[in-house]
From TrEMBL:
This is Lysozyme. CDD domains: lyz_endolysin_autolysin. It holds the Pfam family Phage_lysozyme. Residues 27-46 are annotated as: Disordered. It comes from Sphingomonas naasensis.
Length: 157
């Protein structure tokens, strides 16, 4: 069975990614990473990649389309990393949100994933708070996001 991200996970990602840097005409400008002040450049609902750099401009439709592709890709990768390990929908959604923000490589090597796969859900939940830094600095927005992800992870069903 393939896991899919649910509405709560999608809403959490969109809440914290936002669609920043909206122009008066409604289009969106790419912006630098808040932690580095440069790469990776981001646009829309937190989309990054080699096609996004300073000067990239998208419509809302482009941002929405890319979000659908990105969230599907991240969910599929997180699902593959979890294999057959027992995972509640809230846990899955929270881990997809985390991976979407920190990157699949960081998520794949995380203690959070290792603890979850070992069935130590309490220990895994505590790990969300460790991912609140960018370029070595604690960012209040990341601290809030990690608390929201943990709350989603800890939902009973």
């Amino acid at each position: 069975m393939t896991r899919r991200i649910g509405p709560k996970g999608r809403a959490l990602i969109q809440q914290f990614e936002g669609c920043a840097k909206r122009r008066a005409d409604g289009r969106l400008d790419a912006y630098p990473d808040p932690g580095t002040g440069g790469d990776p450049w981001t646009i829309g609902w937190g989309s990054t990649g080699p096609d996004i750099r300073r000067g990239t401009v998208w419509t809302q439709a482009q941002a929405d389309e890319r979000f659908e592709a990105d969230v599907h890709r991240f969910a599929a990768k997180v699902d593959a990393l979890l294999g057959d390990d027992p995972t509640k929908p809230g846990q899955f959604d929270a881990m997809v949100s985390l991976a979407y923000n920190i990157g699949l490589g960081n998520f794949a090597s995380s203690t959070l994933l290792r603890l979850h796969r070992a069935g130590n859900f309490e220990g895994a939940a505590a790990q969300f708070a460790r991912w609140n830094k960018a370029a070595g600095r604690v960012l209040p927005g990341l601290t809030k996001r990690r608390a929201a992800e943990r709350a989603l992870y800890e939902l009973p069903a």
